[in-house]
């Protein structure tokens, strides 16, 4: 497609993205834009804090309220929150039987809380007393009619013996709720206080109500409801009625939607697991022409007649009022049933967990960092740098528009993923610019140089982004909470950075070709290049030693207790302080005052009505006791008159064992993917020969993680820095960056291997490849480092550990990519080269001697395109730094074509066609 056509498409996309980005703020009252307001996380905007309490007295028989049950409840709550699209909620066990749920500000908060409390106990019942085709004399006969919504069946039971109609608990409770609401809002003239019958008082509709002011007619209805509930409980009671199956027999793959047969009914499709499939098949085989009642949380969903054996392990529940209701039930079933009912015992609004000051500081630092990146790109790369900055602005705009459309919750982990994707977007541009300058120095005309630069950079951009995208997908699949938020933003960022680098930047550069500024090659920075003379492979022992000197002390300090898990991992103590309504307190002032009393790492969160929640991790002597908190409050009263302790409790970890295990599992699988992907993509000489690239990339990645852990262990030992959920985000960011940077160097090695046809010592070839990509590696890291330094200096103390971890990881990732990863490939080739030799024969590369060259075979000559020199050497070797001149005409002169390859050379290896020339 022509650049002009692409430019028109990009302009249209830009206008559309601007509408979604600016519209909600420019026209906040327009209904279309209201749903596209940015969704901010709890750490940035604040939200609601709710305490749910489990009614342990209603546990199923034989099940104890122990750590396993509490962990199961916490996992189910997390899955339900995520199913409702409320990303980044925090769920923390509290005390014996409570859970603190912190939700970011959402429009349907109460609806979500109601859904969290729903036990979602799906059960399948059978009774021989039910009237069916097989048993026409059964006592109970099922009847149905439409609910008030006109779309959902309301199933009731006709007791032929007592000549009464009985409704299920769901409909009894709905009638009770209407009755109590009427008594509270519009009591009858002769109303008197009537105590609620015992069985009705246990229903959630009567929560907190022991008596109601009712008139005689409503009092009679109350008595009738009690009798109806008693009759229904008798109908459902064993041994007459048997529980055949429940939600534990389902596979977590339920789906809600329209009936696939073509009707407009909303249904839920169920799929049983292996044990459930056998139970279902056996039951339907033995009870043909009978009823299997499907029951959920007090409501009879269906009472279908079994026409014959069902052996495929699938079933349907229908109909539902809306597809939304059907999908909601499917989400419940996939998440699992709560073993106990939950009730809300406390609900408050809270400020951002990072604090408003930290959010403001982080925003300011981010702007400064972005300005530093723009300044560097324009000053170093001149005209292409300005184009890259424009592309980066468009990338940010497109990303934001996608985030509000999905929508994605803006949280600190998500922003970290976005920062990494920005670094990758800049990286792709830098790689393209360096390649384009190489083409211009080789005498290519400007347009051809741009096209060739993009083509030669594409393989590195593609391979590195595929590995990053695969890691993101695995993290999203296995992770929960902040891990999924990080993975989603990184995945979106990778996709859009590919688009902006390959499409937007290329289009803008090609549009500049015929402009006055574009024809001036001085504006392309052709004479700005730096290629060092390092023989990295020959000195690899020194670089390995440097890595060990950093990693080993860190591991020693970690063993000595320097690697300190924070309250997110270990749990601790939570105290609710109550300040006078007139008091003006800040998060920082409270934390500083508590810290002065000798308590480490307090975290305060301001709620409404003078309430402040303070969390303190386990101290050196153990948990903070209630007596210690009482003493602390007395000490705080000197600085904050009138403060009291309203509540004390122990809390569990907000980062579950499952989250950590799933994150590690996803990293393991992504590492395996990277090994096999790189083995396939770098399989010069065969797949086995390519494995060394994948293994070396993973070793370099592990190096960076160990450096990060070690440095934090040292900081923890001397400065008492703790590891929290943000450290997990930083570690994931480092993993993504490390592999990304390493692959770019490997790409140059791959290219040089194809061009050398086995004539060059492998170690020397690797050193040359590192030197050729050195400026790109440093410049790419520098753009990210500039942003992180600004965040570290100006971002405030709350997010300083995160920024420090990212900075350490990015520097380590750059070091390992240059000085560790490629030399490891050389060592592998040196020791196993005789077995896995490919095209390039690998010697020690400066370690003494070289391996023999493969015997010559039939030559496959390739045509060589004419080249022209531009005032200097175009060999592209591993010599020292060189400054090149530039012809203003873009290098239109030419030199005689090169001759064909030496006939004595070995055959061209399998794989992509070799390049016609080597830079």
Q: State the helix count.
A: 24
Q: Strand share of the residues?
A: 5-15%
Mean pLDDT, rounded to whole units?
81
The largest β sheet comes out as:
4 strands, antiparallel
Number of strands: 24
Structural class: alpha+beta
- Please state how the strands of the largest beta sheet are arranged side by side: 3-4-2-17
Task: Explain this structure.
The chain is built from 24 helices and 24 strands. It is of the alpha+beta class. Strands 3-4-2-17 form a four-stranded antiparallel sheet, covered by helices on one side. Strands 11-5-14-15 form a four-stranded antiparallel sheet. The radius of gyration is 34 Å and the shape is globular. It starts with a helix and ends in an 83-residue tail after the last helix.
Secondary-structure map with pairings?
Layout: H1 3-26, H2 31-34, E1 39-40, E2 47-54, H3 67-83, E3 90-94, E4 98-104, H4 109-117, E5 122-126, E6 140-146, E7 153-159, E8 164-166, H5 169-185, E9 192-195, H6 198-201, E10 211-214, H7 216-236, E11 242-246, E12 255-258, E13 266-271, H8 274-286, E14 293-296, E15 299-302, E16 314-320, H9 323-335, E17 342-350, H10 356-405, E18 409-410, H11 412-441, H12 446-478, H13 482-512, H14 516-519, H15 540-559, E19 564-565, H16 567-570, E20 572-578, H17 587-596, E21 603-606, E22 611-617, H18 626-636, E23 644-651, H19 657-681, H20 687-719, E24 722-723, H21 725-756, H22 762-772, H23 774-794, H24 800-836
Helix pairs in contact: 1-10, 1-13, 3-9, 5-7, 10-11, 10-13, 10-23, 11-12, 11-13, 11-21, 11-23, 12-13, 12-19, 12-21, 15-20, 15-24, 19-20, 20-21, 20-24, 21-22, 21-24, 22-24, 23-24
